[in-house]
Specification:
- By secondary structure, the chain is of the alpha+beta class.
- Helix content is about 15%, strand content about 30%.
- The protein contains 9 helices and 26 strands.
- About 50% of the residues are buried.
Length: about 550
């Protein structure tokens, strides 16, 4: 029953760092290594709009900017365009979903992503480069984004370690993220319409920017100096003329069409800091600066919800080492603090079109049981996009204590005939300097692999098969809830009992408003089994007594 191992190669396709500083024109990663040779150095109120046309119905032009699904253009102070672009995509998703939000703090994200006091996490300081995946751990760990008003004034120059930053300030948690590819522009357009904007990056060179800074095009033949720069893509125009582009090497795009880009260099042109980029630009949405992504789903964070997770940095690599089309990956948690209703399972996978199944696995002598007869199947589905998948579980009641959430990936019916893979938080190194760019904080007892009828600790697997002491932690998270304690008298469900609740009861009695089940329960203040004027009077008496 020995595992068949895909031979690990340290030199694999790399993606470049993102380091373009505001207003400049200066200019990859695997758990393996980064090829450093590639590094040249509101409050707004909108109604929810879930319109997502089919490919044939995509309009010739679209702008989330014109529709109000963007926050204001900012000016980045450091090499943190990746933070500005990532948070811009999150802000757009929240606005598109109808939430009233404020502008979010890039300083909080930048500080969070600096090296921690145990010398792990992202090995960078606040002026250092970032990567497309850096913000994704921040989002999916529910440690950000954070409103500027909640973060307060952060003097980023005085932040010594990433764990000096508060991690309980986020009001919304990201539950789904879709990776997008240059090969499918229709999917990118649909993501912009559905999610408000798309995070991506390109190679910036002054020679490719129009004199008025409103149009950009790098032809594929361009090989001079450039810098990786992250932005948010918020619209498109299929008819944008090729004559608008400055043409290095006298090469114009073959066809019209351009993406509308929200930049982070302030209001530096006639478009208020936005610019147009040709569909044919050399690197936009390309693998060099992967991943490009949109925030696919979010949810409010409240006291009755808890996210169980064994890592906070997200997937830095894809675990596809086992040469098999069916592997089960597990994360073990301790469900002992009252959050025992499983609401969602979040996992990351690039095993496109694979089938997956989710299980609850009990613990046997400290380890997830290998007896599959004892497993409880909770959900099944298909990996219909690369990225962070969110599976809605039908309120499964978790046994109290130690237990595991397992995800079986079955790629036997997938088009690409790839191994069954899952996202993993794994170390990253620079290929030229051999220095760590990211050091994971994996532990024995967190993640397991079930394969060939054998349950193996992931850390032991790495040590045995890859001679790797740092190992990795699988990106499998459990969103759980606990029963809410009713706040009797809180009829308008705003979290407090006040005079507005008596008004709500009076409007209900007059058939002006309807109350849902929870509101009706809270409205029966005197517990006589009905909602009438006596409840409004009782609330008034309660308020008068407690305000004395």
């Amino acid at each position: 029953n020995a595992m068949k191992i895909k031979i690990f190669k340290a030199s694999v396709a790399a993606i470049a760092a993102i380091c373009c500083i505001a207003g400049t024109a200066s200019v990859g990663v695997t758990a393996a290594e980064i090829d450093e040779s590639e590094l040249v150095s509101y409050n707004l109120d909108n109604s929810e709009d879930n319109t997502t046309p089919s490919e044939s119905e995509l309009p010739e032009s679209y702008s989330s900017k014109d529709l109000g699904f963007v926050t204001s253009v900012k000016k980045q102070p450091y090499n943190d365009c990746w933070a500005f672009a990532g948070l811009a995509a999150l802000e757009s998703k929240l606005l598109k979903s109808g939430y009233n939000i404020e502008s979010m703090s890039e300083s909080h994200l930048n500080a969070w992503a600096t090296t921690r006091s145990n010398n792990k996490g992202w090995i960078r300081n606040y002026t250092g480069d970032g990567y497309g995946t850096t913000a994704l751990g921040y989002f999916t760990s529910w440690q950000g984004g954070v409103f500027e008003s909640d973060a307060g004034q952060i003097d980023i120059t005085k932040v010594e370690h990433g764990d000096d930053v508060a991690t309980d300030l986020a009001k919304y948690g990201v539950t789904g993220i879709e990776y997008l590819s240059k090969d499918n522009p229709e999917e990118i357009k649909r993501a912009i319409m559905e999610d408000g904007g798309v995070y991506s990056a390109y190679a910036h060179a002054p020679a490719c920017l129009s004199d008025d800074r409103t149009a950009y095009y790098m032809p594929s033949a361009y090989i001079s100096g450039y810098t990786g720069h992250a932005i948010e893509v918020v619209g498109w125009d299929d008819n944008y003329s090729v004559d608008n582009f400055k043409t290095p090497l006298n090469i114009k795009p073959k066809n019209p069409g351009a993406w509308l880009i929200k930049n982070s260099w302030g209001n530096n042109n006639s478009l208020g800091g936005y610019f147009w980029m040709s569909y044919e630009d050399k690197f936009i949405f390309a693998t060099k600066y992967r991943p490009s992504y949109s925030i696919k789903s979010v949810q409010p964070i409240n006291d009755n919800t808890k996210l169980y997770q064994n890592e906070i940095d997200g997937a830095t690599y894809e675990f596809s080492y086992i040469n098999s089309d069916s592997v089960t990956y597990l994360n073990k948690f301790d469900f002992s603090d009252g959050y025992n209703t499983l609401d969602k399972v979040i996992f990351k996978s690039e095993s496109l079109n694979s089938d997956y199944s989710i299980y609850y696995v009990p613990t046997d002598n400290g380890t997830p049981t290998a007896n599959t007869d004892d497993w409880t199947k909770l959900y099944s589905g298909s990996v219909d996009y690369k990225g962070y998948i969110c599976a809605d579980i039908d309120d499964y009641t978790l046994p109290e204590g130690s237990g595991s959430i397992a995800v079986t990936i079955d790629s036997s019916n997938a088009d690409n005939n790839a191994n069954a893979s899952i996202g993993v938080c794994e170390w990253l190194k620079n290929t030229s300097s051999k220095n760590y760019v990211f050091i994971n904080d994996s532990k024995y007892g967190d993640s397991y692999i079930y394969y060939n009828n054998t349950m193996t600790d992931a850390m032991e697997w790495y040590k045995t098969n890859n001679d790797d002491e740092l190992g990795g932690t699988f990106v499998i998270k459990a969103v759980t809830t606990k029963p809410e304690t009713p706040l009797i008298g809180d009829v308008d469900l705003n979290g407090v009992v006040d005079i507005r609740d008596t008004t709500a009861i009076q409007k209900y009695i007059a058939n002006i408003v309807q109350l849902d089940e929870k509101a009706m329960l809270n409205a029966d203040f005197n517990a006589d089994g009905r909602v009438d004027i006596t409840d409004a009077t009782a609330i008034q008496q309660y308020l008068a007594k407690n305000n004395d």
